[in-house]
Design brief:
Elements (H helix, E strand, L loop, with lengths): L2 H20 L7 H13 L4 H6 L3 H7 L4 H7 L3 H18 L12 H10 L5 H14 L3 H5 L3 H8 L5 H18 L8 H4 L7 H11 L9 H9 L8 H11 L5 H14 L27 H5 L38
Length: 333
């Protein structure tokens, strides 16, 4: 506002204070007149207070824009379900090629790779498993392996001692209890060493075609950002999300959400300005909203970089990831 405009406001306030001093304030206008009346009485004694009072009005007015947050909280369950399903449809168009980002050729390889993926990237696992599976292609082979040799092979994935114990233990269980075959039931898979519900659903959904929701760190983060759930426990999140989407969508929903979390909706700095579902996101603005700056935050094929798989599906639009140093691209493939 110009200086002239400020003067006009001041004059108007002065005339109101004069009128307020001459007549009692009517009940109907008491709320508006009271501050001016108090200012007139105290202007002679404490001029500083006179300048402080007018600033109270703008602060009261600026509190009004907080309404959008309240309306977001007031979203009905039906409205949330409709928005959630629309997000899923939008993601299906953005990632029609969504897939598990671990290289595998059979259920056993997928099971071992998923266990190894804990606390590391799928890329690191994909660069490690070719040599592992070339030496130990079956559960029987891995169960009879030298633990020190296995530790050395999987060392790049981190926590290699604990992971060696898990994959050799599950290999022995497959050999002894399931005839060397990976079972296709949740209740059997979760009994294997190192296998929880998340790992079990990855195997069931991608090796056996059994629908399941994979609640990893990306899925958990986005489900909460999108107000699909307020839970922190993966099992409770899984249960709540299962009530929102039809069972036939569970596996692909997991892939789409995880893809989006890895490529655009990052944990620390989401690329909000480059997000295709921004109009549906209650958390829009948590990250970079400038379109050009947001584009620089995109990862993998969305940012023009290689993906995580050395051997991606034929319909993957990005470039294959490079193998580990000293490992030929076709090793283990």
């Amino acid at each position: 506002m110009s200086a002239k405009g400020n003067s006009a406001v001041g004059e108007q306030g002065a005339s109101k204070r004069t009128n307020a001093a001459k007549r009692p304030a009517a009940p109907a206008v008491r709320a508006a007149g009271a501050p001016a009346k108090r200012a007139a009485k105290t202007s002679a004694k404490a001029p500083a207070k006179t300048s402080a009072k007018p600033s109270a009005a703008p602060s009261a007015k600026t509190a009004k824009p907080a309404k959008p947050a309240k309306s977001a909280k007031a979203e009905s369950r039906l409205g949330m379900i409709r928005r959630a399903r629309k997000i899923n449809r939008e993601l299906a168009e953005v990632y029609p090629y969504a897939h598990p980002e671990l290289d595998f050729r059979n259920p056993f390889e997928l099971l071992v790779a998923t266990v190894l993926s804990a606390q590391t990237t799928d890329l690191r696992v994909n660069q490690t498993t070719p040599a592992l599976f070339a030496r130990y292609p079956t559960p029987e082979d891995l169960a009879a392996a030298d633990p020190d040799a296995v530790e050395e092979l999987i060392r790049p994935t981190g926590f290699f001692r604990a992971k060696t114990k898990s994959i050799m233990g599950l290999a022995a269980a497959l050999r002894d209890d399931f005839g060397g075959e990976v079972p296709g039931r949740l209740e059997d898979l979760v009994k294997l060493p190192g296998v929880g519900r998340k790992t079990a659903f990855v195997v069931l959904g991608n090796a056996f075609g059994v629908p399941g929701i994979t609640v990893d760190t990306h899925f958990m983060r986005l489900a909460r950002r999108w107000k699909w759930t307020e839970q922190d426990d993966p099992v409770k999140i899984e249960a709540e999300i299962a009530e929102i989407f039809p069972k036939s969508e569970w596996t692909m929903l997991s892939h789409r959400v995880i893809f989006h979390g890895r490529r655009i909706c990052h944990a620390r700095k989401p690329a909000c300005g480059a997000c295709p579902i921004a109009p549906l996101c209650p958390a829009y603005g948590e990250g970079e909203t400038d379109p050009e700056k947001a584009k620089k935050l995109l990862k993998y094929e969305k940012g023009g970089y290689p993906g995580q798989r050395l051997n991606p599906p034929p319909d993957y639009p990005g470039r294959p990831a490079p193998p580990a140093v000293g490992v030929s691209p076709g090793a283990g493939a």
